[in-house]
Each structure stands twice: as C-alpha cells, then as structure tokens.
Amino acid sequence: MTKVAESIIDTPDKSSRDRFLNRELSWLAFNARVLEEAANSEHPVLERLNFLSISASNLDEFYMVRLAGLKGHVDAGVTSKSEDGLTPVRQMEAIRQRAMEIMSDQQSCWRMLKKDLASTSIKIVNADDLTNDEQIWLDDYFSEQVFPILTPLAIDPAHPFPFILNLGFSMVLQIRRLTDGQSLRAMIPLPQMLERFVALPSSGTEDYTRLITQENIISLFLDKIFPDFEVEQAAWFRIIRDSEMEIDEEAEDLMRTFQSALKQRIHGSVIRLSVNHDISESLCQMLVAEIGVAPKDIVRHDGLLGLSDTGELYEIDRPDLKFTPFNARFPERVRELGGDCFEAIRKKDFVVHHPYESFDVVVQFIRQAARDPNVVAVKQTLYRTSNDSPTVAALIEAAEAGKSVTAMVELKARFDEEANIKWARDLERAGANVVFGFIDKKTHAKISMVVRREGTKLRSYAHFGTGNYHPVTAKIYTDISYFTCDPALCRDAAQVFNFMTGYTEPKNLEKLAISPLTLRDRLIALIGDEVEHAKAGRPATIWVKLNSLVDPDIIDALYAASCADVQIEMVVRGICCLRPGVPGLSENIKVKSIIGRFLEHSRVMVFGNGSEIPSPQAKVFFSSADWMPRNLNWRVEVMVPVENQTVHQQLMEQVMVANLMDVAQSWQMNSDGSYSRLTDDDDCFSAHTYFMTNPSLSGRGSALETHRPEMPKLVSLQSEV
C-alpha cells in the first residue's frame, strides 16, 4: 500500500477480508447478467440468441484463462489467500459450483429460445423431424460438402488417441465390425471450418427457415463413414484448454518468443471436458484417461455442446428479429470543415462518443496525417485492431510516404497476439519503427500523436481514447475519443511514447497520470481530496464509470470516503469487489451495472472538488484503465484530465448523467454481491436509447430534464465553447 493510501484509509473492519468480494465470483455474476438479457423478452429473439452466445463464449474464455490460472496454483500447492480470504482450492470449489449453475441456465435458455425461434418461423430440427426431400438433399450435401473433409480415426495400440485442439468438438464411438464381431473405438473430429448450423432447402410451401446441426448430420450418415461396422455407442465431446502464456522476461526477440509461446499454448492442459449427458460410462472413462482431465472437470450437458456457436444463427437474414439498425453520425464540426481533422482540432478540443458517433473520424485523423505533406511524424499505440485494420493501413501509407512512423504494438493482447504479430511485420516492411514495449507490462494506453510542420514551428496533435483502435468493436462498445492540440497534453503524450519505446520514465508530467508510475497515487489523492472537502463541511461527491473495480487500495480509499460522508455513485459494468451499502463502511456508496445493446467500455471519473455536481468546478477525467491491480501495477495506462469547458460539461452532464439516470438496463448491486434488476418497464429511461435517439448530440436537454428535472439543461457535445 502506498503512503498516500495509508494516510487516508481509516475504515471499520479494515483488517477483515469480508470487506472484499471474490473477483472470480463477481465476474460470474456479471456473466449471469449477460445471460439474463438472453431471457429478456423486450429484446428481439435473434438479439437474445446473441446474448446467449456471448455468455457462453465469455464462460469459455473464463475457463481458458482465469480458471486455468487458479488450477495452476492448486497444482503447485499454492495456499495463499485472495483478498477476500479464499485459498485457490476454496475458490475453485465455489467457481465450479456457480459455473455449473450458469451452464445449466444457459441450456434452459437455449431450449426456451428454440421455442421462441420456432414461433417466428425459424426451426432447429433433429434427424427425426426431416422430410423425405430434406433427407435426400442432406444425402447429397453430406457426400459433397462434409464427407471429403472428415477424417475418422481409429483408437488402438497402432493408432494412439489424437491431439484435440482447444475448443475442439468431436464424436467418440464404439463400433463393432460386422465380419468378425470385433469391437473397436474411433473418433471423428468436427473440422472447425464446417458451419455448425446448416440451413435446409425451402420446400416452397412453408415460410419456415429450417436448420439442423452438423453433429446431427454426421450422426445420420455414420454408415457412410464406417461401412461394414455397427455403431454400438456414440457421444459428442468438447474440450477447453489452458490458454495462458508464460513469457521469459529475459527474451531477446519478443516477436519470436511470442510465436513460440503461441505454438505452446495450443498444447495447454485440458481445463474442462463437456460431454453429452447420456454418454456411456466406458466411453467417458476412456476420454478421461486419454485426455488427462480430472473427473470434477467433466460437465455433462443435456442440450447443445458449445453454445457459443449459436452466434452463427444471428446471421439469418431476418432484420425484423434484430435491433433496429443504428447509423453512427460523423462529427459535425469535422464534416463542416471538409473532413479536415487538424483544422477542427485547432479551433478547439472536441470529444467523440462511440458508437453513437462514428469511429471513422479516428481513422480519418491518421489517414489525413499519412497524406498531409506537412506531417513529419506519426506515433500510435496498437492493442487490438481488426483483420483489415484501416488504422494500420493508414500507418503503412504514412511510412511509405517517408514520414517517421512509430507503432507501439502490444503483443500480449490476449487472443490477438497472432494478428498483432502480422501487423508488426507489415508495418516493419513499410519502414515503420515497430516496438513492443515492456516484457513484464502490457501497453494498454490508447494514444495517437501527429507532429505537423506549420510555418517555422512544429505543432502536435493528439488523440486519447478509452477504446481500442478497432473499427468493429467501435460499433458496439461505448467509448470516448478526445482530440486536442493542447501543448501540455501533447508534451505529456510525447513523454509517454518515449517511456514505451525507450524505457525513459516521464519526468514532471504536466497533466497526464500514467500507470504504473503515478496513476494509483493520483486516484487515491483525488479520493482523499473529497474526504477533506467533506470534513470541512463542503459538498463531497464522486461519480465513477468503469468496467471493473478490484484494487484493494482503491476500494479501501472509497470506504474511507464513504465513512467521511462523501457521496459516491458508481457504474461498474463487470467485476466489482467492493461491497456497497454496508452500515459503518459503505452506506454512502451506490453501485450499479448497465447491460444492454452496447458494451459499456468507457472509463470516466468526476470528483466534486467542493461543489455540488454537475458543476464547472468539478474535476473530470477519462482513462484507459480500470481500477484493478493489473491496470495500476502491470500495465501502461493513461488518465486524462478534461479542462476544456465544453468537453468537461459534455462528459459530466451528458455521458455520466445519462448513465447514472439509466433504469431500463441497470442492475443495482447489493452488499452481498448479488444484483437486482431495477425495472422490467421498457418505458423507463435508457441511456443507450437516449444517445441513439439523439445521434447529433443536440437538443439533449429535453430528454434528461423530463426524467431528472433537477439537472440543468445540457449542451451538445459538438457545441462551441
């Protein structure tokens, strides 16, 4: 704990671990809220199906990373306790129990959604439901599209059990040869390039979309795969492997090291084995022995294995069963200036609110830099981006044009490592300076910087964001993009880039706070300032919007603030290890989570600074960092103060007020870590609907005044100072 933290933390029961909630169980609670949206009848049915797929995919990744890490601790005999007082063994037990409940709920949700899909003329059929025409069509489909790809594998002393990839889906069988009656075992891996759901041809007499799963098709034609054999037993199974990577801190070539580690990750130990509920005991025991999985890591499903694949069904062409399309608006001020980002920034700082306003303006900023003959240098962080990244394309164009281009590519962005290695190679070939930052830290900050010659001087322009430079996620994540040519912020940005590229620690940053150097102390000091305002009898308020709140020092500082009568309202989408509403500890803290059409991803903080907020006197910040030990200790992050009057007002009175006012998509957190949905009434205020309804960000005052009349009239995000 820092000296700053020790100086202000004075909470009841501060030695009791009960003041913290378990990180992993809190994440499972978040995923349960995601699953609840799949059961929300207010959503169109294909959107509900998408929530189910997201929930299942989330849980798969949780097993691959978080549970795999805990299992490693258990296997290594680690007995140290988590902040909430649980050993790795106790955590594993609690996690398995809660995860099993969620998986059961997911299967129940799938059964419900299949019925709801059928009521909208989309039917998932089994082999018994097929018509004669469909069986004939499937015979041709299997022979032409599936059979050539399948590779049935015998399992015997001459044919050892094959290696199964992570998330691999396979059939295991016991078959009997008709010629001599000998029983054999075999396996059929399902190739990953095969679609999971196959649309059957329309009969022309029904307006139904009928689909069948690939495993049903294969089961239907086992006689073609194993002629002269009788199938005695058969079952499908799916595995999840440990997908964490360990990197040698002494590695000399980080790209080569990561390429090697990616190959090793393919062979991670099996963390979970999912099987059909009716699998025979003999086949199950054979899988346990061959795969090397513990019996307690076997999950029997009475339903569909690999529910994450249900996301394929979202591609069905039924716009009436999806959210009404929403078109993001290009920022008006940039458009009015003919797309000239630099002129728009010179006029004044401005903020763009994604996904309601288009990410294209961020791409335009880099693309204009690439094509402007007066631009001499471009610097960019890349944490996650798309396969056909327009940002990377613009950087390559800039490098090929002879500009000095520096790309800080984070190779440790989980599950994006391979894509980032590819982009690094492409950038290097174009002549860019590609660096990979720190071996022991992730670079998670989102910064772009352009240096432009204007007359006899150089002027710098900067973009700071809360989200990745990823045009796909920018359409579904709520994030903040901030453009500025403020000299102090640009000087700070240059120091941060030097820190990332040359390990030179920034000295005397003027405005930015960065982790792992100054961000933690800055946050705790800001919380401490509110405590001092409360003690002096001045208004003391904190508003926070985050993805996750885990860090124990920050939580204890918030507890201290609550005990000093600081009023704290928090929107924490995912993990929250703080217990709100505990008498004598956190009765002045309210926490809620917003789960809806868009993924809440922006991090915004408002500190009252002795005033009733919203107030011009309040201190407003946004950041790339959640309040977690990993973000504050082991990542390079930035927190940006917002001093421009208009942007200050926009983030505080529009983004934060709307999120705090949201009822339709909000879950109130209880002190025991459970959550209660605030309402089922779709007429209540929804932040997502509100921002979509006003994409131009003008005239917003009327909506907020209707729902919260005590708030002042709000301004347009693109209005003039």
Summarize this, please?
With 721 residues, the chain is α/β, with parallel strands linked by helices.
Defining traits:
single chain; 721 residues; alpha/beta; polyphosphate kinase like; Endonuclease, Chain A; 3 domains; ten-stranded mixed beta sheet; eight-stranded mixed beta sheet; 21 helices; 27 strands; 36% helix; disordered N terminus
Describe the oligomeric state of these chains in a short phrase. Answer: single chain
Helix content: 25-40%
Q: Mean of the pLDDT scores?
A: 88
By CATH, the architecture of the largest domain is named: 2-Layer Sandwich
Number of domains: 3
The CATH class of the largest domain, by name, is: Alpha Beta
Largest pleated sheet = 10 strands, mixed
Pairing-aware structural class of the strands and helices? alpha/beta
Strand content: 15-25%
SS field, number of helical segments? 21
**The CATH H-level homologous superfamily of the largest domain:** Endonuclease Chain A
- Unreliable segments of 5+ consecutive residues: 1-12, 245-255, 696-704, 709-721
